[in-house]
Amino acid sequence: MDIHEYQAKELLTGFGIQVPRGGLAYSPEQATYRAREIGGSKWVVKAQIHSGARGKAGGVQMCSNDREIWDTAETLLGSRLVTHQTGPRGKVVYRLYVEEALDIKQELYVGFVLDRKSERIMVVASAAGGMEIEDITADRPDTLMGVTIEPAVGMQEFQAREIAFGLGLESSLIGEAARTLLGCYKAFEELDASMVEINPLVVTGDNRLIALDAKMSFDDNALFRVPQVSELRDKSQEDPRETYAADRGLSYVGLEGEIGCIINGAGLAMATLDMIKLEGGEPANFLDIGGGASPERVVKAFKAVLADDKVQALLVNVFAGINRCDWVAEGVVKACHETDVNVPVVVRLAGTHVEEGRAILRESGLDITIASSLAEAAKSAVSAWRSATKH
Ligand code: GDP
Ligand code: MN
């Protein structure tokens, strides 16, 4: 789960990290009020969406009076920001964060991630902050430092100081930089984060070290034990298709194509997506109904997939081991009666009770294409999609 920048800053403040003074706003009048509350003569109005790279998309604006703050807030609120991290659908701005603008002398990068290869938390740092980590890796790999943390002892003071020195900071800032790094590590561990990123961590004109931007993601499977994090969930920032499915216990990932997929098992789902692409189609989603799926569960899966109005054809592919083809078939028939299925449906069943399952489909009188192999199913689904959309 991702959270907003202002929420990450609030959490990190609790671990001793210095952040700019700021306040949340839901309206232009509130934004100007926040600026007055903060004081000073320059402010930054920042769109709160679950994405980085907002600056380049116009989501981070410098303002020097009430009028500018008001106009910026009015433009941003309710708008859809498309960054190169959001995908083409973008994310709608419902909240703004107004901050004192700082005089920046230097921008650094600090990130904490899970390194799957070493199975350790890894600190990545660079003196070339401000740009995205992908760009630093490509353009300034010479500035990148990576340090893995030994889980049995946690991050050590000497490691934090080593990174601080590696960033080229002057001696008066080494202590504060080490405290910042150790604070991020503690937050990562205690809050079950999967990512903590401060980009940029800045040195100000008056030589203070401040987290100008902060991003945190969390392990969904640990949310039950960190209520102070789980309560920060903002569904408006999630793919509505994924939220709908997740709330119904389905494993669903939204994609950009038009062929809806209902499949059992992640491996078969991946293989099916590959087969669809091989045939020249584009899947609209990844959906795993899991083992032992009841007819009701199949109905829920249909509803989740059809909630995406881009879907132009539907492929059900079930290789039943623990599952039962007759239950799946019953679910398909029930779904066709209960929901307004106005796209062609292709079903491939194999395994436990396959004959009973196929019979249920045949006798239903519904216009369903029954395929006998994965290859045939993918081919039928793609050609059904082609004739439905004239592709
Ligand atoms: P992101 O684009 O989503 O990563 O948003 P950031 O919060 O990182 O802001 C993008 C960029 O805006 C930063 O790298 C800074 O260069 C600039 N910026 C943000 N706040 C300030 C500020 O208070 N003062 C100055 N001078 N620049 C700022
Ligand atoms: Mn940033």
| CATH structural class of the largest domain | Alpha Beta
**Helicity level:** 25-40%
Low-confidence stretches: none
Structural class: alpha+beta
Could you say which overall geometry the principal axes of the C-alpha atoms support?
A: elongated
What ligand molecules are bound, each kind once?
guanosine-5'-diphosphate, manganese (II) ion
What is the second-level CATH architecture of the largest domain?
2-Layer Sandwich
Task: Give the overall average pLDDT.
Answer: 95
CATH topology label of the largest domain = D-amino Acid Aminotransferase, Chain A, domain 1
Descriptive report:
The protein is α+β, with helices and mostly antiparallel strands. It is built from 13 helices and 18 strands. It has helices spanning 5-13, 28-38, 66-76, 133-139, 157-166, 171-190, 227-230, 240-247, 266-278, 295-306, 325-338, 354-363, 374-389, and strands at 22-25, 43-48, 60-63, 80-81, 91-92, 95-100, 104-115, 120-126, 144-148, 193-204, 209-211, 215-218, 251-254, 259-263, 285-288, 313-320, 345-351, 368-371. The two termini are 37 Å apart. Bound molecules: guanosine-5'-diphosphate and manganese (II) ion (MN). Residues 44, 52-55, 60, 101-102, 104, 107, 130, 199-200, 212-213 line the site of guanosine-5'-diphosphate (GDP).
